[in-house]
Amino acid sequence: MDCLPGRAGCKQEVRPPPCGLCSGPRWWDGWRRVKWQATLTPDGLTWVEGPWRRRTRCFNPECDSRSSTLYEAQAYPYRTFAPAVAVAAVLELLSVEGATVVSVAQLWQCDPRTLDRWLGWIGWLAELAVLLKVCWRYDPSGMPPPVFQPRRKDLDPPTATTKPTWKDRATLIGSLVLLFEWLARLHRDHGIPLEEGPGLSALLRRQFDRYRLVSMLTKRSPPMQTQVLWSGG
Ligand SMILES: [Zn+2]
Fold it and tell me: Is residue 158's pLDDT more than 60?
């Protein structure tokens, strides 16, 4: 666990890391547990019991940071659904003929609104053009990039509109997922270790290990550090 040695005279031997917002001292604030967490295994969706984790609170009364959960250094922080589950569910929604947000959400045991948020979350992680350039830079084969082509015929909206269509959105999100998959494969081909599973979640884990950046699945997250993930071993 990420802890710092306490000062002499402290009641406890270790203190939480300083506040990520104001760099001020934090203190323990009880324990928290998400009882069940969904992970992706070769058998599909698997529910496991979540561990108890300590919470910390910032001392600074003017700091916007409130109580937050402290995660083990080796654990990627997520509340209920592992990022790999979100990626798998989104790909199923975009690829399987006749699939709907409701039907896929039922299959992956999540709320339909959660599944819709996962689509938006992936869309915020990278700009397609930037991700393409990164992949091109590291691909020695010069192969053309994978482009997602929805096989579903039912993605077009019923009426014409000037706004991006469902099909446009599906193509963008699907292309991002494939490019993240491609980038992860390039990492692995060059001997850069990544955890198993979908490329996007494996790259998120590498980003977390290196920069302690956490991507929250249901919020707008900072873009992935795809241009620097490669370097530094
Ligand atoms: Zn603070």
Answer: no
Q: How far, in Å, from the CA of 66 to the mean position of ligand 1?
A: 8
Write the pLDDT tens digit of every residue in 36-94. Answer: 999 999 889 999 998 898 999 998 888 877 788 888 777 788 889 999 999 999 999 98
Instruction: Output the CA–CA distances (angstroms, integers) from residue 177 to 2, 93, 117, 200, in the order listed.
Output: 31, 13, 15, 7
Which pTM value belongs to this model?
0.77
Domain with 154 in it: 83-229
Residue 75 lies in a domain: no
Q: Under a CB-based contact definition with an 8 Å cutoff, are residues 224 and 129 in contact? A: no
- Name residues with Cβ closer than 5 Å to ligand 1, which is an ion: 19, 21-22, 24, 58, 60, 63, 65
Largest Cα–Cα distance of the chain, in whole Å? 70
Look at residues 17, 38, 69 and tell me which one is the last residue of a structural domain: 69
Band of residue 6 on the pLDDT scale cut at 50, 70, 90: very low
108 plus 209 within the same structural domain: yes
CA of 98 to the centre of ligand 1 (A): 48
How many domains would you assign to the chain? 2
**111 with 59, same domain?**
no
Using DSSP's 3-state secondary structure scheme, residue 215 falls into: coil
